[in-house]
Prior knowledge:
It is a single chain. With 127 residues, the chain is α+β, with helices and mostly antiparallel strands. The chain has a domain at 37-118. It is built from four helices and four strands. Strand 3 (101-106) and strand 4 form a beta hairpin. Helix 2 (37-50) packs across helix 4. It is globular, with a radius of gyration of 23 Å. The N and C termini lie far apart (78 Å).
Amino acid sequence: MKIQLGILSGALAALAACQADPPPPDPERKSARRPPEPACEQARADLERRGRDGTFLFEDSGEAMTERDAWMRLNESRRDGLIGQLAVVAACSAETPQHEVEITIRDERGVVLTSQRVEPSTDFRAR
């Protein structure tokens, strides 16, 4: 009888532990939120403007295609801006809010020019 009570109390303790409150979120990391709609609209408009000549195509998923020569002519700041805009569009289109999104840019032959996880930033300044 004592053995059965010991097993039962151990099982109840394990069950109670499973139902305990989850640990508090890391104070350094805020919960994931979808970017505000104005940021989504601006990022999409900027990317569409870039693609008017047909040398840049993008999808809401964060995938894009551009000509290798055009990519190589961009300085690091312009590349980072393009990646940031893709990240915002991908975050706006995601089914659930995410802290980071996967961005992949390929050349006209499908060779990956860059692939990285990016935290979408909505710190857009007037252009």
